[in-house]
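User: Some background: our group keeps a shared notebook of sequences we're curious about, and every so often someone picks one and asks for a predicted structure to add to the entry. Today it's my turn. The entry only has the sequence so far, pasted here. Could you supply the structure so I can complete it?
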Amino acid sequence: MIADGEATTLGEDAREREGLKQEQKMSTASRSVMHSNRHPEGAPLKTTLDSEGRTVRKPERPESSFLDTIVGLQSSLRSTLSQVKAVAGTNTTVLITGETGTGKEVIARAIHELSSRHNRNLVKVNCAAMPAGLLESELFGHERGAFTGAINSHVGRFALADRGTLFLDEIGDMPLELQPKLLRVLQEREFEAVGSTRTTRVDVRVVAATNQDLRQMVQDGDFRGDLYYRLSVFPIYLPPLRERKADIPELVEYFVQQFAASMDKKIETIPEETMRSIVRHCWHGNIRELQNYIERGVILSNDGIFEPGPLETCEPPEPETVNPTLQEKIRREIIAACESANWKLGGPRGAAARLGLQRNTLYYKMKRLGIAPPADSLQDSHLKRKNVPVIKFK
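Assistant: Of course. Here's the predicted structure to add to the notebook entry:
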């Protein structure tokens, strides 16, 4: 026998459950209406379950829907896009390589859009845009009070990309001291925020990109070998524009119409000689350089005819264009930073701070590259310690 009070409670619980069911039905119906309004009539739908077990109807997107928006498929780019289609449906880590301006971010977005994670976040991080300390906080987050100025906690990009895709651009510029933490996330799918002892687990698909030769960096000791092999499970190489001359006319027409529409101009003719000169040009800056040139040309054009300015002299590319000699590039940057800091390595205005490196890291880079300060510039006490030899020019 059930007491009156218990019967009343059970009755209220039943009504609450019934009310929740009605709200769920209304919510599902509302979502169905929004989905039907958002997509064209007649678009095929598939039935899936959301995170709470409710039925949701979503449109089935053609596999090539995003790839159809990529301009220029007459050349070697077709084989690249075949690789994109093959890897997009997996959770495999992808490393995109190619010169600056070849469209690495577009390919990263294509991989995300064609994957099962396309309804989740595509989070982008430029590893070259931040010093080591800030990059660690940006990637993994930090707790309040973790360091001076951390007045609030911060959610990192890995947490924001959970169940989605994280695009790490310029991965070759990630500081050495931060690479082990990235390697751990790739292998174990877990990390700790800066200043926290709590381990956070994530499900993130990582796509990385670089215009540097990571193999050479590994040999030079500037990039971890284990991280390189973990990132390059599926490498994709983007050819430079000079190897895709068959795509240039289509790209020119696309950019001309795009910029003409944005500037409220009408351009109907591209002279044949103009097109030939554009196709013959070397385009060391690749698609980005071509895009900027077309924009300037549209600004200068009148009377419906595309009349761009003269092209710059096309000098032969330097041997370092595709994969610059990393030692020489790093050497020049270190020397420039040291000279601007009067060869002082440590301190808030020292060369290490200017380069976003730890002082010890900078010192050993200088030692390996044979960089030595002038004899009258040994101001940094780190170079004067016992058992730490002063670097000398040969």
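Suggested note for the entry: The longest strand covers residues 205-210. The chain has 14 helices and nine strands.
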